[in-house]
Each structure stands twice: as structure tokens, then as C-alpha cells.
């Protein structure tokens, strides 16, 4: 029987498909669209349930292997770039790898998209904004002054010794490469700046299915399971806008569905209504955990303060507030986030208990 070659316009390649965002994006693409998906990654544990799907091909590849990656890009109408090293603990400890994967190793993929005429959806980061400009000017408590806008807010990084900013700097440079490829080679692109997406399958639990320091949500879940104190870096005073992964995937779908509106645009994707300090996040997670694990009340769950230097080592700095203006995504994509922090955390905690420690519910 003659095999039909899938239409290029029906094919999406996701580089970094096996990670947190990739796994949720893949769920949605396979469940709610007609696209064929090629997923490139080094790992596939989080997407194992799709490995036998006829519309999905997993290709275990290092994105640096350009000759092997190229044919997949060439047969795709859309390429979504997610591959990254994106845990803050790595920015100061594996700086060269962070710069390589997030910048130098990514540039050939962008050039390939331009050459192949593929539409590129590039996942940058809210961290490109760097330190909070309004706070530096003494207006850190004024929300209006803090709002970050895609096309006019400045990028402010710390000195080279503060290697925390290696990731932001790498992603900034890629945004500039993507923009220039649009101007000089006609690349059709959309840049996404995620603001702390959260949900099931985020990162890993140290000592259980990974090593090192994950992002804050997994750090707190790991502490709750181990009945250890939740550690508040520098008192947990910094603020973040945690965004439910389902809302974030809705935004990705709008970007795919509205190619003209999204063409050569940068979008903040985040939930300003969910802004919280990290100390408040810890309190909330402890309360929700106790509700789901009744026996937990008996074990004195606690928080403890720790300096950034003791937690991350030298070279760490932080953004004290990252508040997105999402007006552009609302206007051009018709997208707005719907899920409050309480629901997002409760659902994530439930998924974590189901996966790692269902017996705790019976204690
Ligand atoms: P993740 O770490 O869960 O996923 C990244 C994936 O990239 C992993 O599966 C990893 O194996 C893969 N990868 C790394 N190096 C690779 C290589 N050399 N070859 C092939 N694959 C490789 O991260 P995520 O949270 O899913 O983030 C996805 C993207 O979104 C990243 O670019 C990240 O910078 C950006 N981002 C995410 C958030 C968030 O809230 N999750 C916030 C800001 C930016
Ligand atoms: N943080 C914390 N305790 C932890 C892990 C992180 O207080 O166990 C803080 C971290 O210093 C930062 C915030 O939580 O202020 C968010 O950190 P995360 O690693 O999730 O990512 P970021 O938003 O900084 O990229």
C-alpha cells in the first residue's frame, strides 16, 4: 500500500517535547487538534502515554545534532522551541551549559527555521526583564509602575559575577536573533515569555526522580513529602505570578490558531491576579497539603528562612517582582488566564500525591 506523506502544514515539531510544558502541549495537540507532532528530546518519561499514538513520533535526539534534527524541521510547517536548561540553581553552577543550550546551541535551530520557511514559536522567559526596574527606582510596591510590557520595558541585568543572569542574558540574545531573522530573512515567528507556569509534571523531586534544586513549586512539594521545613530564600519576600499550565496551553493554542495576529509578536503569558510572595505561597501550600493529607497536621510542618547564598551558592541574585501586562495577549489573541492560585495549587498537590505518595492519604 502506498504511504501518504503528511502535509507540512499539518506537522509540528516540538524541540524539548519531553519537559513540563512540552508534555502538556502534546496532550492538547493530540487530544484537540488534527496536527501530526514530532517530539524531539533526550527524555520521554513525561510523555510516555503518547509514544504509541499514530499522530506522534518521538525522536530521541540531542538538539545539538544539527544534521539529524534538520530533516524534521524541514518537514514541519511549525516548530516550537522549548528545549532549555531553566532551573535557577543551574544558572550559577553550570553557567556554560546554560549559555550553550539556551543560546549558542539554539541559534542553528532558528537559522534552520528561517531557511526551511517554518513558522517558529520560541519560548523565551519572563526573566529577560531581569531585576525589577520599578523596585530599583523605589516604586516596587506600586503595581502600575511594576507592570512589564513586551515592547517597551527595559531589560536590567546584574554584573557578570552575578551569574544568575546568564539564563536571562542567553534568552535575551536569542530573542534578538529571532527578531533579526524576522527582519533580514523573513522568519515568521512568535516569542512567548512565560511567567512561572505551574502544574503537574513540573520538574522533579530531588532524590526521587532527579537530583539538584528544582523550581520553587517542586522544592516545596518535596519538603512536604519529606516532612522537612519549606525553605524561604531571603525570607520569601519576592513575588511571582504563578500561572496555571492549562491557561498557558490555551494561550499556545490561540497562537497556533491565529497566525496572522501572532506573527512577529512577543507575548507575556502570565496571570497577574495570582501574584503572591513566596512566603505566602508556602503558607498556602501547607494549608492545602494539610487538607489533602489529614495526618500531616500531626507532623509539625514548618518554614525556615535561608539566605540566597546558603541555598544557591555564590552568584545568585533575584527579581523581586515580575508582574506581566497581558493586554497584548488579550487584544491580539483573545486570551486571558482563568485559573486562580488556590485551584492551581490544589490540583497540582493532588497530582503530586497521586503520583508519588498515595498512601499518605490513608494515614
Ligand atoms: P523543562 O526543563 O521541563 O523542559 C525542557 C526540556 O528540554 C527537557 O525535557 C529537556 O530534556 C529538554 N532538553 C534540554 N536540553 C536538550 C538537548 N540538548 N536536546 C534535546 N532536548 C533537550 O522546562 P519547561 O518548564 O517545560 O520550559 C520549557 C521552555 O519554557 C524553556 O525554554 C524555558 O526556558 C521556558 N520557560 C518556562 C517557564 C515555566 O514556568 N515553566 C518559565 C520561563 C520560561
Ligand atoms: N525559592 C524559595 N525556596 C525554594 C526555592 C525557591 O524561596 O525552595 C524562591 C526563589 O529564591 C525565587 C522564587 O522562589 O525568589 C521563585 O524561584 P523559582 O526557582 O521557582 O524560579 P524563578 O521565578 O526565580 O525563575
Write the layout of secondary structure elements.
Layout: E1 11-15, H1 20-32, E2 36-41, E3 56-60, H2 66-74, E4 78-81, H3 88-93, H4 95-104, H5 107-116, E5 119-123, H6 133-136, H7 143-146, E6 147-148, H8 166-185, E7 189-194, E8 197-198, H9 216-226, E9 230-233, E10 239-241, E11 243-244, H10 245-257, H11 259-262, E12 265-269, E13 275-277, H12 278-292, E14 303-306, H13 308-312, E15 323-324, H14 327-333, H15 341-356
Parallel strand pairs: 1-2, 1-4, 2-3, 4-5, 5-7, 6-15, 7-12, 8-11, 9-14
Antiparallel strand pairs: 10-13
Helix pairs in contact: 1-10, 2-5, 4-8, 5-8, 9-12, 12-15
The structure holds nicotinamide-adenine-dinucleotide and uridine-5'-diphosphate (UDP).
Which terms summarize this structure?
363 residues, alpha/beta, Rossmann fold, seven-stranded parallel β-sheet, two-stranded parallel sheet, 40% helix, globular, binds nicotinamide-adenine-dinucleotide, binds uridine-5'-diphosphate
Distinct ligands? nicotinamide-adenine-dinucleotide, uridine-5'-diphosphate
Shape: globular
Number of helices: 15
CATH C-level class: Alpha Beta
- Proper CATH architecture: 3-Layer(aba) Sandwich
- Decide which structural class fits the backbone: alpha/beta
Please report the distance between the alpha carbons of the first and last residues.
58 Å
Major beta sheet, strand line-up? 3-2-1-4-5-7-12
Strand content: 15-25%
Task: Give me the strand/helix succession.
Answer: EHEEHEHHHEHHEHEEHEEEHHEEHEHEHH
Write down how many β-strands occur, each being a DSSP E stretch of 2 or more residues: 15
Q: At the third CATH level, what is the topology name?
A: Rossmann fold
What are the low-pLDDT stretches, counting only 5+ consecutive residues below 50? none
| Biggest sheet overview | 7 strands, parallel
The portion of residues assigned to helices is 40-55%
Amino acid at each position: 500500500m502506498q504511504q501518504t506523506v503528511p502535509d507540512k502544514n499539518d506537522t509540528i515539531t516540538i524541540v524539548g517535547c519531553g519537559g513540563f510544558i512540552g508534555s502538556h502541549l502534546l496532550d492538547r495537540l493530540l487530544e484537540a487538534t488534527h496536527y501530526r507532532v514530532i517530539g524531539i528530546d533526550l527524555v520521554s518519561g513525561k510523555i510516555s502515554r503518547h509514544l504509541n499514538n499514530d499522530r506522534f513520533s518521538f525522536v530521541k535526539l540531542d538538539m545539538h545534532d544539527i544534521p539529524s534534527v534538520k530533516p524534521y524541521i524541514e518537514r514541519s510547517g511549525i516548530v516550537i522551541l522549548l528545549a532549555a536548561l531553566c532551573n535557577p540553581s543551574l544558572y550559577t553552577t553550570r553557567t556554560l551549559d546554560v549559555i550553550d543550550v539556551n543560546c549558542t546551541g539554539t541559534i542553528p535551530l532558528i537559522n534552520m527555521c528561517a531557511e526551511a520557511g517554518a513558522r517558529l514559536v520560541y519560548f523565551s522567559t519572563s526573566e529577560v526583564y531581569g531585576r525589577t526596574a520599578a523596585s530599583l527606582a523605589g516604586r516596587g510596591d506600586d503595581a502600575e509602575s511594576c507592570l512589564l510590557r513586551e515592547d517597551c520595558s527595559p531589560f536590567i541585568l546584574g554584573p557578570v559575577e552575578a551569574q544568575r543572569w546568564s539564563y536571562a542574558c542567553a534568552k535575551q540574545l536569542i530573542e534578538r536573533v529571532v527578531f533579526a531573522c524576522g527582519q533580514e530573512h523573513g522568519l515568521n515567528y512568535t516569542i512567548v515569555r512565560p511567567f512561572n507556569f505551574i502544574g503537574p509534571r513540573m520538574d522533579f523531586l530531588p532524590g526521587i526522580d532527579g537530583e539538584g534544586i528544582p523550581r520553587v513549586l517542586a522544592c516545596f512539594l518535596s519538603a512536604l513529602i519529606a516532612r522537612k521545613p519549606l525553605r524561604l530564600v531571603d525570607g520569601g519576600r519576592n513575588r511571582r505570578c504563578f500561572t496555571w499550565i492549562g491557561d498557558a496551553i490555551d494561550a499556545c493554542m490561540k497562537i497556533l490558531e491565529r497566525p496572522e495576529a501572532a506573527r512577529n509578536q512577543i507575548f507575556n503569558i502570565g496571570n497577574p491576579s495570582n501574584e503572591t510572595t513566596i512566603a505566602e505561597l508556602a503558607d498556602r501550600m501547607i494549608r492545602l497539603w494539610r487538607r489533602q493529607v489529614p495526618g500531616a497536621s500531626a507532623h509539625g510542618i514548618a518554614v525556615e528562612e535561608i539566605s540566597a547564598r546558603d541555598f544557591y551558592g555564590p552568584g545568585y541574585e533575584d527579581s523581586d517582582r515580575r508582574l506581566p501586562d497581558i493586554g497584548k495577549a488579550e487584544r491580539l489573541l483573545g486570551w486571558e488566564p482563568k485559573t486562580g492560585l488556590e485551584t492551581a495549587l490544589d490540583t497540582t498537590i493532588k497530582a503530586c500525591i497521586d503520583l508519588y505518595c498515595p498512601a499518605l492519604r490513608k494515614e
